[in-house]
UniProtKB/TrEMBL annotation:
Cellular component GO terms held in the UniProt record: cytoplasm
Top-level taxon of origin: Eukaryota
EF-hand domain span: 195-230, 303-338, 378-413
Protein name: EF-hand domain-containing protein
Comp. bias regions, Low complexity: 16-28
Gene3D superfamilies: EF-hand
Species per Swiss-Prot/TrEMBL record: Urochloa decumbens
């Protein structure tokens, strides 16, 4: 009995203590007595004991969690505007020095890969020694087998830098005869032009201080100044005229390669422009037959630059370095109309900072643009310049009233010159017939460009001499034919 009572007491004591640790009716053995539980948990936690469905569920949860985190990251980044402008390194900083050094080394490496004058001479000799003579024309030609053989010989004599010119795609660029042969001269001229343009691009890139692919006016002037010693027709230029010449020459590049007048010209556009080709024509020796007329027609010739400079000095009566409206009216012997001069100042001349801000005079750069537009009326750039002046109301098109207003001044100068009487309405109708605008009631710039007579029409509306040339075009054409026959 005592044993039972003792056991009951003990049991009661044990029941009280276990009631505090666990719910009634449940007894949890110590962890040390259940090692299989720990092993099971480890086994399930690793995933190795799960079936295919359970593994797929875990993989799905993992993927969804990654997608959720990626969306959270993008949402956090969306709160700020992405960076589209990177500040250029400060002058003199380590970053600026490294950038300049990298650019210098890159351009030097590209220059070393170019063919020099001796290499070009050696290639020409190799081409002539390994070509065939066409019996019909006497031209020196080569087929593709000759082309490959010459490539091997040139590579041995000159080096690997000439190999890129002898690719199959380059051979296919040239016109072939019935036997599949190409002439060696066009191929050699292609090589020379490629080398020349690449060297020009390297030289311009060296002058591009901010490495943005554009040249500013002073950078273009520096490039032209560096070319002068290598241009045969400019070697004898007076030293005191070099700076003025560079300003005049550089302005044509910006007139044609900077249509939006941002003050910088794209290097790629400069390389592909006719301006650079016209400048490079001065390489030919002056002993060759280069007439005074040809020199005057080339904007970059010394004769042309001096003519323009003398013209500006003659017009600048008060010698203040700018031209007033009254002074510009004397341009071309005063044959330009007053309304055109007024419109030039309205559209293309900035207000002066002196004189209370109301005075407006034309500086030398604006004068160069003015001359370039008048001497290149048939180009898109020249006609765009003039159309802004002809568009009296800035509407983007010309009406019959605009044509009548513009030609009225030409008609007045025409009569003052002792010419026959003419009807303004007839001239207006003739202009409409020449243009044939898309809209029969208005003439746009695109209409003038597409009719291929925009330069003539602009001359008729701004210059009495231009209208006289149009009115006497048949006689002038006959005189030109007679001069050609006599020559």
């Amino acid at each position: 009995m005592s044993t039972a009572s003792g056991d009951g007491a003990d049991a009661g004591g044990d029941g009280a203590s276990s009631a505090a640790a666990a719910p009634a009716g449940r007894r949890i053995p110590p962890a040390s007595s259940m090692p299989w539980v720990r092993n099971l948990r480890r086994f399930v936690g690793s995933g190795s004991g799960l079936g295919s469905e359970a593994l797929m569920e875990l993989e799905t949860k993992r993927i969804l969690l990654e997608i959720f985190k990626e969306r959270q990251r993008k949402s956090a980044e969306a709160g700020s505007i992405p960076s589209f402008y990177k500040k250029k390194p400060e002058e003199g900083s380590i970053s600026s020095r490294v950038q300049r050094l990298a650019k210098y080394r890159f351009l030097k490496k590209q220059s070393e890969l170019l063919l020099n004058a001796d290499d070009l001479d050696a290639m020409w000799v190799c081409l002539r020694e390994n070509c065939v003579i066409d019996d019909a024309t006497g031209a020196e030609k080569m087929n593709y087998e000759d082309f490959c053989h010459i490539a091997t010989v040139c590579t041995e004599q000159i080096g690997q830098k000439c190999k890129r010119f002898f690719s199959p795609s380059n051979f296919m660029k040239f016109e072939k005869d019935d036997s599949g042969r190409i002439a060696i001269l066009p191929f050699y001229l292609y090589v020379m032009r490629t080398v020349s343009l690449t060297q020009a691009r390297i030289d311009m890139s060296e002058l591009d201080e901010d490495s943005d692919g554009f040249l500013q006016p002073h950078e273009m002037e520096s490039y032209i100044r560096g070319l002068i010693p290598n241009l045969a027709q400019l070697r004898d230029m007076p030293t005191q005229f070099v700076q003025m010449y560079c300003r005049i020459a550089a302005r044509k590049f910006f007139f044609f390669c900077d249509p939006h007048r941002r003050g910088k010209a794209c290097i790629k556009k400069v390389l592909l422009s006719n301006c650079l080709q016209e400048l490079m024509e001065l390489h030919q020796e002056s002993e060759e037959e280069v007439t005074d007329t040809e020199q005057a027609e080339n904007w970059f010739s010394l004769t042309s630059a001096q003519r323009i400079c003398d013209m500006f000095l003659a017009l600048d009566k008060d010698q203040n370095g700018t031209l007033s409206k009254q002074e510009l009216k004397e341009y071309a012997d005063g044959t330009l109309t007053e309304i055109f001069i007024e419109r030039v100042f309205d559209e293309h001349v900035r207000r002066s900072k002196v004189g209370g801000g109301n005075s407006r005079e034309m500086d030398f750069e604006s004068f160069l643009d003015f001359v370039l537009a008048l001497e290149n009326k048939d180009t898109a750039e020249g006609l765009t310049y003039l159309f802004r002046c002809l568009d009296l109301n800035g509407r983007g098109f010309l009406t019959t009233a605009d044509i009548h207003t513009l030609f009225r001044d030409v008609h007045q100068k025409w009569i003052e010159g002792g010419n026959y009487e003419l009807c303004i309405e007839d001239v207006r109708d003739e202009i409409w017939d020449m243009v044939k605008p898309a809209d029969p009631l208005r003439i746009s710039l695109s209409d003038l460009l597409s009719c291929k007579q925009g330069g003539t029409i602009a001359s008729m509306l701004i210059d009495v001499r231009g209208f006289w040339a149009h009115d006497n075009r048949e006689n002038l054409l006959q005189e030109e034919e007679e001069q050609v026959e006599e020559a």
